Amino acid sequence: xxxxxxxxxxxxxxxxWKLKESELATEVFAAPGSDGIADEGVTSVNIAVSDHTxxxxxxxENDISLTIVGPEDPLVNGIVDLFQNEGLMIFGPxxxxxxxxxxxxxxxxxxxxxxxxTAAYESFSEAEPAKxxxxxxxxxxxxKADGLAAGKGVVVAQTEEEALKALDEMMKNRAFGEAxxxxxxxxxxxxxxxxxxxxxxxxxxxPMVPAxxxxxxxxxDKGPNTGGMGAYSPVPYISSxxxxxxxxxxxxxxxxxxxxxxxxxxxxLYAGLMITENGPKxxxxxxxxxxPETQVVLPRLQSDLAExxxxxxxxxxxxxxxxxxxxxxxxxxxxxxPGNYEKGAAFGLPEVSPHLDQKWFHAGxxxxxxxxxxNGGRVILLSTMGADLEKAVSSTYKTLDSQFWNxxxxxxDIGRRAVNLADASGSEKxxx
Length: 432
Ligand code: AMP
Ligand code: GLY
Prior knowledge:
Blueprint: E1 2-7, H1 10-20, E2 27-32, H2 35-38, E3 43-44, H3 52-61, E4 64-69, H4 72-76, H5 79-85, E5 90-91, H6 99-102, H7 104-113, E6 121-124, H8 127-137, E7 141-145, E8 154-157, H9 160-172, E9 183-187, E10 192-201, E11 204-207, E12 212-213, E13 216-218, E14 222-225, E15 230-233, H10 240-260, E16 266-276, E17 279-286, H11 293-297, H12 305-313, E18 326-334, E19 346-347, E20 358-362, E21 365-368, E22 371-374, E23 378-386, H13 389-400, E24 408-409, H14 416-425
């Protein structure tokens, strides 16, 4: 079968790389894809992610049997409905189900209605009542633009002043455009964050292994929120019983809730969780694979990805097989990201040794003479598999620190806290 992946980032690189391994795939296409993805033997299709009719025509004319959607925007804008109306198989939620990510208020309402644990909240369309609520609740408190804002529409305010300023920025100055016309003000949750993704089709939920993202730009979780600066999987200090609790009390009830709401969910349901003293609570739902979580979860997946998706959508039993090894991924980003940055800085990639199980996943890069040049905020990610987290982390940084990176920066502490926590508790470091 011919498979089309929509998108061009590191997540889509990992999806394409995994799909190329599939026994079912005769050819893999990526729209628009990237030079890095093309190096996997994937055919780039020069159609933008936002050009839904262009993508539909391409899929029809080229007998694409399965389309997998990477980013959230086309899902929220209804690409799945468009393909399905034309009888094409596409993996992702309908426009109605994608509201779980497209509107934070909608996600909150569904969680509230079906008793899915999440932070207490109120939703506002006017700045003044929102400010009064902040003053009544006190800080720390979290302010979220309702709509899509590329992972940047969230302010975790440590003081009331910060929260009031964030409300002005979002609601009055429209820093995130229309996404800020509605704002959710939410209780600050304390704990460890975990990303838990699952393959979902109606009431069928097949969870993947957990991962932890590092959202802040700089070491020690300092600096602004980004799309994600690195990740690792599994998360050794979160017990399997907590993960099971999240599956039973969050992922499955949410899939069931969407069926009851008449917006049955098909695709990847991503729960961003805070593991609090009172158990796991939802920080956010996404309706697609996480980035960079996918780049550390898919390397551990031993099952055939295309087969998993096809079986799931056909209502057949599917089980996932996972490597016991851990995986760490560190993002190299353009200097200045997530703020303004320049493109076009040339860089070369150190050889990675196959026996270390290392791999480069390209995001915002393109070919430049003999090497590469930067072409986006998050540029590239190095993923490393290892027998335990400590080994995987140290071989990642050995490769990254082996050269000077002009115009790029990366965090030096991805996965390190997990290694330290495991050391401190004297528990097994592998998280197996
Ligand atoms: P989000 O885009 O909703 O994932 O939020 C970005 C980041 O803000 C999350 O990864 C958390 O670190 C933080 N955050 C969001 N909501 C809360 C909350 N209710 N309590 C504490 N931290 C939060
Ligand atoms: N890594 C967070 C996200 O994909 O939204």
